[in-house]
From TrEMBL:
The lineage of its organism: Bacteria, Bacillati, Actinomycetota, Coriobacteriia, Eggerthellales. It comes from Adlercreutzia mucosicola. GO terms for molecular function: nucleic acid binding. Belongs to the UPF0102 family. This is Endonuclease. Pfam families: UPF0102. Gene3D superfamilies: 3.40.1350.10. InterPro entries: Restrct_endonuc-II-like, tRNA_endonuc-like_dom_sf, UPF0102_YraN-like. PANTHER family: UPF0102 PROTEIN YRAN (PTHR34039).
Amino acid sequence: MSNLSIKANEAASRYLDHRGYTVLETGWTCPAGTADIVAKDGDVIVFADVSSRDSAERGFPSESCGKKARTKRENIAIAWLAEHEDAVNEAVRFDNIALVVIGKDRAMIRHHINAFGADAASLTPEVPSIPTGADLQALPEAA
């Protein structure tokens, strides 16, 4: 791990702590990979992926939320939860934290909460429409 990555993970941990999260672990590893930060946000266990850039010229690092990256992060979370038997009936969330260095000992942080949340819409069943017009006429009248 590069010096920048180490400092970025430390800064991200301090950022989460400042926001009221409880950082449980940093750099937790398993055969599936590494969880940069595992934290609690209230009753939710957060698996945060940290990315960084050493220059503002190219902007923020990209956040990989493709299917392969998602599956890897989910497998890391499964391994962490399996090892921590006290974490039962806990909600789980995946966040991305991106840092870009803007000066000596200064960085800008972007925290994408629930990075996989947009995918949840595709998992939600379609809500039935409210009957109108001809549909209402076909309904029997109340007695």
